[in-house]
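ARCHIVE RECORD
Type: protein–small molecule complex
Small molecule: S-adenosylmethionine
Source of inputs: curated submission
Record status: active
Notes field left blank by submitter.
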Amino acid sequence: MVARPESADHQETDDICKVFGPDFQQSLSQFGIRERAAGNGQPEVKGQQGDGDGKDGITEEDQPLKADLILFVLRRVSGFSRFYWHALSYRLPALHMPGQSHRRDDLMQRDDYIEANRKMWDETADIHAAGYVAGLAQRVRAPDFSTFDDVEKSLFAQIGLKDKAVIQLGCNNGRELISVKKAGAGRCVGVDVSDKFIAQGTQLASLGGVDVEFVRSSVYDLPHEFYAAFDLVYITMGVLGWLPDLDAFFAIVSRLLRTDGQLFIYEMHPILNMFEGDKGLTAEASYFQAEPFVDEEGPDYLDPTQTVKSVSYWFPHKLSDVIGGCLKHGLNLTHFEEYGHDISAVYAAFEHLAKKPPLSYSLVARKTA
Ligand SMILES: C[S@@+](CC[C@H](N)C(=O)[O-])C[C@H]1O[C@@H](n2cnc3c(N)ncnc32)[C@H](O)[C@@H]1O
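STRUCTURE (tokenized, with ligand):
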């Protein structure tokens, strides 16, 4: 049994009840959650927290599951808007006991976001299939097919691709990894959470005549056989923002690399999270916003004539989260550069501004031990 100090939990559950009304209060009481917050009941904790594999630290009482159950029911009750669903997700940790592991709840939340994003990407894959991917199906056949711009050409020349084992996380339709393979890499593995993009990648690699493995997985669920199996982890353009937990992500990146292996990130600059591509340099959000952006129905980023209907969640990580995450997990920076060109297609108009913010950056880090 763990000793349970007095806390603000009861006040917080009361606050939630004020927002969501007497029915919700009754539901909490039914599950014993308000009473626990008030100090009755002391759930036992099994296991240790914090080795990052996400499989330990589960409480015996499984109270987080009860909170998850309430969330599950509420999300399916009509009239409960997406905003509240989102707000409640964020308030849920308040329903947990101090001293008790939050790991199960964190995992449930993380998986909810990833599942929502996966559906959105599957929908997007269908939109891209007809035009964009059909065009790629012709281009990938060329022996010198390449998606690399000058930044990638220069950095891949420094990193050295020849015979290297490369894994790309968030590989989308695989066109960049096919380029890596055609540039002389050895084993190439592409990981993406979307079944449909993985199917497109498999088809494009076959048309391109290259041997590239594609794995349908969230980056958080990669098999242990991949640990210490790669010389290079490659991440480009619009991947990090889909990941709810950057610290856990960099722990995994570090595990994937052999000693002396390298990480290459070529990403949108996170300062862009403050702005909207079509609204210019008016700050729409704080650089330090912690909550994800919730994207509801809107135009596709490659084909704005098409509408993506699924809800998705974008996580605005700071540049210091990226650099700090690398350093914390033994990935020592050997290169970092910021650029005034857009790689996302979303902020292209910013390239022409006289007083523009940084639009993209590249980072190379080496695993030292
Ligand atoms: C904007 S695309 C960018 C990828 C690539 N650089 C490109 O330009 O095509 C982001 C990709 O990340 C994938 N993704 C999002 N969340 C993921 C997760 N948790 N695990 C693996 N892939 C994920 C999406 O399915 C999508 O294909």
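CURATOR ANNOTATION: The longest helix spans residues 103-139.
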